[in-house]
Design brief:
mainly alpha; 10 helices
């Protein structure tokens, strides 16, 4: 593959593919250039730096993951929406581990680029919309969003690292985890804000 036709999108996708194959931390400008069959210097016409490339990978992944979640949850509510949301999240993490990690890692993204990206904003909207179906309002909504993100990310990260060595299948535990989350969301404890105890 020569320099002709090289674009920012192609560089980003090559970086994303490399992240999935080798890990986000193994993505370098030299490795991406080698993958595209060009010299390192050719990439800098399309991305400013490795940090810029990783930021673009994160935005690409956010768009992809959000689209998958949106398609999975369309027309669903309550537990059906929660399960579809969670399953889409987990499937994306399994299929695109490097890209997924870019969405869970602190990466400085160009503010102008971030402002144009719909993925992260849409992800927040989808999550809050699903949780409003459980009758939650602030500050409980934010707390519930953090609970879901912690649970989903914790589960898939442990799963990816081989952290579930018990003979019970991770899938069985995943199903029960979603059952428990649904029950918790239906019976969300009242806020203790302002409670002096």
């Amino acid at each position: 593959m020569g320099r002709a036709g090289l674009t920012t999108e192609r560089v980003t996708v090559a970086g994303a593919e490399l992240a999935d194959e080798a890990g986000l931390d193994r993505v370098t400008m030299s490795q991406v250039a080698r993958r595209l069959g060009v010299k390192d210097a050719s990439l800098y016409t399309h991305v400013r730096s490795l940090e810029d490339l990783r930021g673009r990978i994160a935005l690409l992944a956010a768009d992809e993951k959000t689209l998958r979640i949106a398609e999975a949850t369309a027309g669903r509510s309550g537990k059906a929406a929660l399960v579809a949301f969670a399953d889409a999240w987990r499937a994306y993490a399994h299929e695109h581990p490097g890209r997924y990690m870019s969405t869970q890692t602190s990466i400085r993204i160009d503010p102008e680029l971030a402002a144009k990206a719909s993925g992260p904003r849409r992800a927040v909207e989808l999550t809050y919309s699903m949780l409003r179906g459980y009758g939650l309002a602030e500050p409980d909504l934010t707390d519930a969003v953090r609970l879901l993100r912690s649970t989903f990310h914790g589960f898939v990260a442990l799963e990816a690292s081989g952290g579930f060595a018990h003979e019970r299948s991770p899938q069985d535990s995943w199903v029960r985890t979603l059952d428990a989350l649904h029950t918790l969301l239906e019976h969300w404890p009242p806020s203790r804000e302002g409670d002096p105890s």
